[in-house]
Amino acid sequence: MKDVFVDVVKTIWHSVFVDKWRLLFTRGMSKRGSYAKGVAKREEILERALEVVAQHGYQGASVKEIAEAVSLSQAGLLHYFTSKEELFAEILRTRDTHDQAAFAEPESMVDPTAFRRSYLAVVQHNAQVLGLVHLFARMNVDAAAPEHPAHAYFRERGVGLRGMLSDIARTAWEGETGPAGMRPEQFAAIVQAVTDGLQAQWMLDPEIDMAGTIDALLAALIPGSAAPGDAD
Question: pTM surpassing 0.85?
């Protein structure tokens, strides 16, 4: 009788606890698997969208076209992004990641010469992808509204860029004061304003030499940062 009771208890324990744990574990694995697939699909969308926007620009890259590029319906695409504006903000983040991987030198965060070389390489590359310049310039204006999906991206980008530029200025000047008494924070704001503003001007007149203009600015504000052949 005791053996029968033990068998019954084992059966109940297994069915109530072991099977339930297995079910929860399986569900957890399923959710994690679905999450991983969702992340992978989102990354695929961003990579293809980056190509579409680079070719066709902000106005030419419709949700329909991007959705077709990744074999999704428009509704399916918006399952991963709440709006076209959010999608485009994430495209810009992806572009920044690509630029950093392609052009940033290990020393560019601390060495003015390496920074100048890397910064100009990004500007020169931007001149080859008209669609992304259009996207950036258009959204840079629209995102001034706090409720815009790209507002956080542009604020974070600005804070990060100005912080890096300020550090470069301090290193180059060996202190807090540059040409004409300029402060590192002022240098950072000027370089960002010129870089972003030139993109808008370049869309109106592609003959403008963005890289050459920024190079001249950096040469004036951080003397000695150029290495032979950097401005070629």
Answer: no
